[in-house]
From TrEMBL:
Positions of region (Disordered): 118-138
Main location: cytoplasm
Family: Belongs to the histone-like protein H-NS family.
A single cellular component GO annotation: cytosol
Subcellular location: Cytoplasm, Nucleoid
Molecular function GO labels: bent DNA binding; DNA-binding transcription repressor activity; minor groove of adenine-thymine-rich DNA binding; transcription cis-regulatory region binding
Ranges for domain DNA-binding protein H-NS-like C-terminal: 63-109
PANTHER family assigned to the protein according to its UniProt record, in alphabetical order: DNA-BINDING PROTEIN STPA, PTHR38097
SUPFAM superfamilies: H-NS histone-like proteins
Protein name in UniProt: H-NS histone family protein
Pfam family, one: Histone_HNS
Nucleus in keyword set: no
Length: 138
């Protein structure tokens, strides 16, 4: 059954596309169901479970609940916003660092460093980090 697309109007083409998409979703659903039934039959025939075949997907691969890390940094403008120091930096953290006189150390929870750090101390700290990196590379 060939359809001459050149003779169809834009409205007819849209309807055809919509019908084709609906048919494609239905075919995909059927394909997934068939694959699942084949897998279930194979597992039943071999006496295995999905947990044994794919331990991480089945949930047994994990030893326990994921550990929660205590927050390390706090937003001074909104104390409800904290960050553990792991993963992507939150926007409030990055924005705070752009402000003059604010450093990551000044955003630490408890025992924070004074906001103003002298230029000499900052220069020493940068030099110390650079020398540590060079030593690590060797």
């Amino acid at each position: 059954m060939a359809i001459n697309l050149d003779s169809l109007s834009p409205a007819e083409l849209r309807a055809l596309i919509k019908n084709a998409e609906t048919q494609m979703k239905s075919a995909r659903k059927n394909q997934v169901q068939e694959a699942r039934s084949k897998i279930d039959a194979l597992l039943k025939a071999t006496g295995l479970s999905i947990d044994e075949v794919y331990p991480r997907l089945g949930g047994k691969g994990r030893k326990g609940p994921k550990a929660v890390v205590a927050p390390k940094y706090r937003n001074p403008e909104n104390v409800a916003q904290t960050w553990s120091g792991r993963g992507k930096r939150p926007i409030w953290f990055s924005e705070s660092l752009k402000k003059k006189g604010v450093s990551a150390e000044s955003l630490l929870i408890g025992g924070s460093v004074p906001k103003k750090v002298s230029a000499k101390k900052a220069a020493r700290k940068v030099a110390k980090r650079a020398s540590a990196k060079k030593a690590a590379k060797k």
